[in-house]
Design a protein that fits this description.
By secondary structure, the chain is α/β, with parallel strands linked by helices. It has eight helices and seven strands. It comes from Vibrio atlanticus (strain LGP32) (Vibrio splendidus (strain Mel32)).
Length: about 240
Amino acid sequence: MENSVRKLHSEQTTSFDTEYIDQKMFEILVKQLDMLYPTRQSFHLLDIGGGNGVYADKILSHYTNSRVTLVEPEETLLEKNRGHPNKELKCSLFQDLELVIPYDIIQFNWVLHHFISDSYEATKNIQQQALIKAFNHLSSDGLVVIFENFYEGILVRNLPSKLIYHTTASKALAPITSKLGANTAGVGVCFNSRETWHDMLLEAGFKVIVHIPFYSFGNLSQVKTRLLHLKDQNVGLLIAKKE
């Protein structure tokens, strides 16, 4: 039996109507893509959870020979996309999406931590299956690109992942966690450490994995940080190549 995927309510997605990849980050990404894939040739990018399409438009503007298929389950975000002859929009969860052609690049921009189910174990399985699905539907030498917030534990590397999941996924605690600032309250969120994502990519079949660190952030109080066993919060980029 497949694990069901929890979906955020429309009002919980309003904070995602923004673009987190600034010009400097985009330039670093482009440099990596050009080194790892023959981007001078035409290529097809699958943008999972592409939201308002600002990132897809950046790709289409920079790589004029590219095509982008943008997948987004929230219609209010999908409707904000600008039209482009090389951009196709699909309203769907990644788990429900039937992939019939291989893609050259499959991208998850701060999306994987929103792949949530009714237990922590089922959630980790959904995340792992998403990476396996991406691997299986990449062209030869294709890339999976992941922007993520990495949550690093003090002694146990991925303990914050489990603690944050159980705190935010609880429907009983939702009124409290919502007031504390968790916009995923009652649905859940599952961040992982960088090493955990690295291991999951290896498990999915990838061999070459590049990590680009960007910056540290700390949006939690000292009390919350200690309760969640948090050592560091970092934004970074993972690129894995199929060989």
